[in-house]
């Protein structure tokens, strides 16, 4: 199973972005999304260090809620 997490872009330098999710920051490659016009504040789905999809803020929040639900059910 592959897993991508929603992250918000904090800054962009060429094809690399500094992104944040739940207080954790990471360098993310935008190489696979060069055809998109991404900017600071946008949300992207990140898989193994690569942004693979742009999502709206509400969709990013919905996906985090789903991850939280899965985490809670795994603890039960």
Distance between the termini: 22 Å
Portion in beta strands: 35-45%
CATH class: Mainly Beta
> Which spans have pLDDT < 50 for at least 5 consecutive residues?
none
Strand segment count: 5
Task: Determine the CATH topology.
Answer: SH3 type barrels
Largest sheet: 5 strands, antiparallel
Compact description:
The protein has one helix and five strands, in the order E-E-E-E-E-H. With 76 residues, the chain is of the alpha+beta class. The protein has one domain: SH3 type barrels, CATH 2.30.30.
Characterization of this structure:
With 76 residues, the chain is α+β, with helices and mostly antiparallel strands. It has a single domain (5-75), classed as SH3 type barrels (Roll). It has one helix and five strands. The chain has one helix at residues 57-75; strands spanning 5-13, 16-21, 24-29, 43-47, 50-55. Strands 3-2-1-4-5 form a five-stranded antiparallel β-sheet, with helices on one face. The longest helix is centred in the last third of the chain and has 19 residues, at 57-75. It is elongated and about 45 Å long. The two termini are 22 Å apart. The model has no long low-confidence stretch (mean pLDDT 94).
